Amino acid sequence: MKITIEEARKIALLSRLEFSAEDLEKMRESMNSILTHMEELNQHDTEGVEPTAHAVEQYNV
């Protein structure tokens, strides 16, 4: 799934943010990069893996 420039404009509008054309393109590229990474993660089987809040278990002293 790729974000188009029109979709990036709509996301910015809904977020109440204003970007220059150059910054909007950078934001679109960043969102596409994130979505590509999420698609890669979705290819892995996570059945039976417990969700975690931290990568390293933490204890309160």
Briefly, what is this?
Helix content is 52%, strand content 0%.
Order of helices and strands: HH
Total of DSSP H or I helical runs spanning 4+ residues: 2
Shape assignment:
elongated
How much helix, percentage-wise, in residues?
40-55%
Number of strands: 0
Structural class: mainly alpha
Specify the biggest β-sheet: none
What is the CA-CA span between the terminal residues? 45 Å
Q: Return residue spans where pLDDT drops below 50 for at least 5 consecutive residues.
A: none
**Beta-strand content:** under 5%
Q: Write down the Rg.
A: 17 Å
Task: Tell me the layout of helices and strands.
Layout: H1 5-14, H2 21-42
Can you give a write-up of this model?
The chain contains two helices and no strands. It is elongated. Helix 1 packs across helix 2 (21-42). It starts with a helix and ends in a 19-residue tail after the last helix. The chain has 61 residues and is mainly α. The model has no long low-confidence stretch (mean pLDDT 91). It is 52% helix and 0% strand. It has helices spanning 5-14, 21-42.
Main features:
61 residues; mainly alpha
